[in-house]
Amino acid sequence: MPVRLRRRPRVFAAVGVFAVLAVAAVFRFWALGRPGTLVFDELYYVRDAITQLAHGFPTAWPDDDPGMATGFTDEPSFAVHPPLGKWIIALGLAVLGDATGWGWRSAVALTGVATVAVTMRLGWRISRSAGVAMFAGLFLAVDGVHVVLTRVGLLDGILTFFVVLGALFMWRDHEWVTERTRVARGGLPVLWARPWLVAAAAAFGCAAAVKWSGLYPLAALLLLTAARDTIVRFSVAHEARRPLGLTSDLDAQRHASYARATGTALLQAAATGLLAIPIAVAVYVANWFGWIFTAGGWGRSAGWVAGLWQYHVDMFAWHSTLSAPHPYQAHPLTWPFGLRPTAMYFEALDSGLVQVISPIPNVLITWGGVAALLVLAWWAIRALRRPATLIRSRSLAAHGAYAAAFVVVCYLSGWLPWVLTVSRSAVFQFYAVVLTPFSALALALVVGVICKRRGSLEETSGRRMAVAVFVTAAVILSLAFFPVWSGAPIPEGFWRWHLWLPSWG
């Protein structure tokens, strides 16, 4: 009987996880071939994927027909993004062909479901709560921005997968270091053999090989890791000096102990960078294999090292000088609230119906996630106001300060660099899809705290009922918006009903 009692929660958790993944799959694969023509920037990325599959590098098309009635040529094309995302799109094309949207969208949809799975895993590792993990997965599964960007053959949904995977591996590295801190005596040596850090660097190398913006989270999390390692070493130094007692040279010993901790923290930061950055670069370069090992690609006439360097110089120049005003351009400051969604497809049908694909946000999840991130940021800042407490703690995750900081930094790493550096007009709301897993995770963590907060039976029941109502309303809202996320034929009046803000049209 005790064995059954222990196994029952695991069964419920497994059922819940598979149910969330089923919801994610339905939202992404239902009528995935609709419409049967290229939408928005599929015109570029899907065509690059088709020609990469044929030649190993992108080649040109003679026209801009979204129906792809004409074929491609052998003339190399200047692709302005690295090749990995297009290779992943090509996997679906290799299996299903390019006759329907299923071919060029199925691999992206699959990465969307995988992102939900990885987000749940990250939620569980952070909270050790199956409920929090399932909330995080469900919020992401029905998030409008993530749903749309994993139903079209664009790169950003794929980028999001690798960013979340890298974040999961970075969290595992935190756990790995924390475990070694518990058994440290007299000081913690510089750690070189960090398998989870290696895995994270490889994941972020793949993220950068989809879009260069995948480098932002790697840089941010390396800085956070350096700060975490510093606090860990001061924790070990603090514990190591406690048995000294009240001796005449206690202050000198304390200062010497902290000086050693500072020195090893700096060495550890250098070691972390020397370990992670070359791996990320090597993985990034390896993803150019098609261009490297074939002849005829753009700029491939010289040796591949010099040619690849010049290719990147040209890519950087293109991105830094791009000036292409667009009716759906959106300043990064508006991204967290989804104030200017990028309408990717609109077609008025002869029957009086319309077809729309627009990543209009589910406001309960998107705006609720922003509120939850502010709560997590407050938790982290409040802990920083008591540095002595952080130093004395042998497990930063135990009181949630590092967990809160980790989620907030992951979110900011995909948003703040754009706010600080954007200098071109052609930036769009859908770039914010990389924020959605961390917004969902923040919301799930806050919801988990609300559900588990101590109080009377009546108070606890009331809070859990409020959470149940919120989650139910969020799912119902996503069902109501799914037709405009998926290009379903709908009456124009029904489409207009979804335009809750003037900027959503």
Automatic annotation (TrEMBL):
Domain ArnT-like N-terminal: 21-285
UniProt-recorded name of the protein: Polyprenol-phosphate-mannose--protein mannosyltransferase
A GO molecular function held by the record: dolichyl-phosphate-mannose-protein mannosyltransferase activity
Pfam families: PMT, PMT_4TMC
Signal peptide: none
Species annotation: Leucobacter aridicollis
Protein O-mannosyl-transferase C-terminal four TM domain mapped to chain residues: 307-504
Taxonomy of the source species: Bacteria, Bacillati, Actinomycetota, Actinomycetes, Micrococcales
Documented EC number(s): 2.4.1.-
